[in-house]
Amino acid sequence: MNVITNNQLKCTVALAALESVIDPEIGLNVVDLGLIYQLDFDEPQKKLFVSMTLTTQFCPMGESITAAVKRALENTFDGESVMLELTFDPPWNHNRISEEGKQFLSK
């Protein structure tokens, strides 16, 4: 998975927290699904910018998933504002799934 970031250490912490956010229809977390595109940290402003996608634009659980992502990051980075952008450019595809995710889905 290839997440763009301006702070690798904080990104690693953020991704670990996001592993708890599961897409309820697929049963796999948003990190292994490859839904997280970018995590940037503005430390002076105490803001965390997230760019992510969903498996489809019409995902019926989209609102629930994005809310869970925001909540997980707010809980992990206490006092930081989480600014979440949902994008479909580039569109998600199966190639974004991690090796662990592929193994999980093949069971």
Could you walk me through the main structural features you see in this protein, from its secondary elements to its overall organization?
The protein has 107 residues and is an alpha/beta fold. It has one domain (4-100): Fe-S cluster assembly (FSCA) (GMP Synthetase, Chain A, domain 3, 2-Layer Sandwich). 35% of the residues lie in helices and 23% in strands. It contains 4 helices and 6 strands. It has helices spanning 8-18, 30-33, 62-76, 99-105, and strands spanning 4-5, 22-23, 28-29, 36-42, 47-52, 81-86. The strands form 2 sheets. Strands 1-4-5-6 form a 4-stranded mixed sheet. The protein has a two-stranded antiparallel sheet with strand order 2-3. It is globular.
What is the end-to-end distance? 21 Å
Q: Pairing-aware structural class of the strands and helices?
A: alpha/beta
- CATH homology superfamily name: Fe-S cluster assembly (FSCA)
Number of strands: 6
Instruction: Give me the Rg, rounded.
Output: 13 Å
- Unreliable stretches, pLDDT < 50, 5 or more residues? none
Overall shape: globular
Percent of residues in helices comes to 25-40%
Question: Any idea of the CATH class?
Answer: Alpha Beta
Strand order of the largest sheet: 1-4-5-6
Query: What sequence of helices (H) and strands (E) makes up the elements?
Result: EHEEHEEHEH
CATH architecture: 2-Layer Sandwich
Total helical segments: 4
What is the overall pLDDT average? 95
Number of domains: 1
Instruction: Tell me the major beta sheet.
Output: 4 strands, mixed
